[in-house]
């Protein structure tokens, strides 16, 4: 994170909490799709599109995991925004001069404006940009990963896993609905609650679902079937942020993840699987939440803890069976320019 991005976040902060109200997420995204047949005007084409993400964001982290598991790095380039942003836009402050080297812009908002001048909604990541036009194609994050899995198959690596197999899609969709409403978005309904009542209701719903998921995962290694699927990707990115951010910052403090034995072992199993932990940047995660959400954390102080070394401890989930990648294989190591800095990861010594 650069000093400039920190200053911008403090000088022009966004507003996330509405007094007296529960948090309601705006889920109306740009739903144009990139498909094999190009029916929306954007056909699958290697090198044409750039995924703009931020390691801090759980919704964007999903796309980083799926892109890596499927081996789409050569087909879809990656632009990474810094961990903090102001009320206006996510910015490319990690790049030299604060400008994305491919798109030539300092803010992802510029690509939104290219697509929809005067874009009236929030500037979000992940977003996929059409490089020739410089315009955002879509920011519909739930659909982006599904389309990576189903529409980009011509560019999947050899040994790519089936993350959304046809015979399990109905069950995956059902699990995902509950995980999204109660967990992925549930932590935000706690953290951005504008009243005690709204917070307590969100808190109860969150931990009710986490207890249900613990029961489900007590006898099975993965959420659906015996391999990693889209469902596991979606739950993981929230669990990875739970102790580092949500337990304190969002007041989801009945239990730490590390105090929920089944979910903690499940999360460590995934974290230690190529594609999951190696896309997780704990420093950026903490900087994002504690600096950006000034109406939740007015001081902007980023906590030093928690201890992260326990993410690498044995999980013993392999005793439940299952094959992480099914008939496929693990992805190769991350590209050198996409490796999470060692100092932002889990201390190994």
From TrEMBL:
InterPro entries the record matches: Glutathione-S-Trfase_C-like, Glutathione-S-Trfase_C_sf, Glutathione_S-Trfase, Glutathione_S-Trfase_N, GST_Omega-like_C, GST_Omega/GSH, Thioredoxin-like_sf
Residues noted as binding glutathione in the record, renumbered to the chain: 90
Domain GST C-terminal: 165-292
UniProt site (Lowers pKa of active site Cys): 246, 289
Active site (catalytic residues): 57, 188
Listed GO MF terms: glutathione transferase activity
Region (Disordered): 315-349
CDD domains: GST_C_Omega_like
Source species, domain of life: Bacteria
One CC-aspect GO term: cytoplasm
Name of this chain's protein: GST C-terminal domain-containing protein
Organism: Gordonia soli NBRC 108243
Lineage, highest ranks first: Bacteria, Bacillati, Actinomycetota, Actinomycetes, Mycobacteriales
């Amino acid at each position: 994170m650069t000093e400039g991005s920190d200053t911008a976040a403090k000088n022009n902060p966004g507003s996330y909490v509405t007094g007296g109200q529960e948090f309601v997420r705006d889920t109306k995204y740009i739903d144009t799709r990139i498909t094999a047949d190009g029916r929306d005007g954007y056909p699958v084409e290697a090198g044409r599109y750039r995924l703009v993400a931020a390691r801090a964001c759980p919704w964007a982290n999903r796309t980083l995991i799926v892109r890596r598991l499927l081996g789409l790095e050569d087909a879809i380039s990656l632009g990474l925004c810094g961990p903090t942003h102001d009320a206006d836009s996510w910015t490319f402050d990690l790049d030299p001069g604060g400008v994305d080297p491919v798109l030539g812009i300092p803010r992802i908002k510029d690509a939104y404006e290219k697509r929809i001048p005067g874009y009236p909604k929030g500037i979000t990541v992940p977003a996929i940009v059409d490089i020739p036009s410089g315009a955002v194609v879509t920011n519909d994050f739930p659909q982006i990963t599904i389309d990576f899995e189903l529409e980009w198959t011509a560019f999947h690596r050899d040994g790519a896993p089936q993350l959304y197999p046809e015979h399990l899609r109905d069950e995956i969709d059902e699990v995902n609905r509950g995980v999204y409403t109660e967990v992925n978005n549930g932590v935000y309904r706690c953290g951005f609650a504008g009243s005690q009542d709204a917070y307590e209701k969100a808190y109860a719903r969150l931990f009710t679902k986490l207890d249900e998921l613990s029961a489900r995962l007590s006898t099975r290694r993965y959420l659906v079937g015996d391999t990693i699927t889209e469902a596991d990707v979606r739950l993981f990115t929230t669990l990875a942020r739970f102790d580092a951010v949500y337990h304190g910052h969002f007041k989801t403090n009945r239990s730490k993840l590390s105090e929920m034995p089944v979910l903690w072992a499940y999360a460590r199993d995934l974290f230690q699987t190529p594609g999951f932990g190696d896309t997780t940047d704990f420093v950026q995660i903490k900087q994002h939440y504690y600096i950006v959400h000034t109406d939740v954390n007015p001081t902007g102080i980023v906590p030093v803890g928690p201890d992260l070394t326990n993410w690498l401890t044995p999980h013993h989930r392999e005793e439940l069976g299952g094959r992480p990648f099914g008939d496929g294989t693990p992805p190769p190591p991350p590209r050198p320019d996409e490796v999470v800095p060692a100092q932002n990861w889990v201390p190994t010594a």
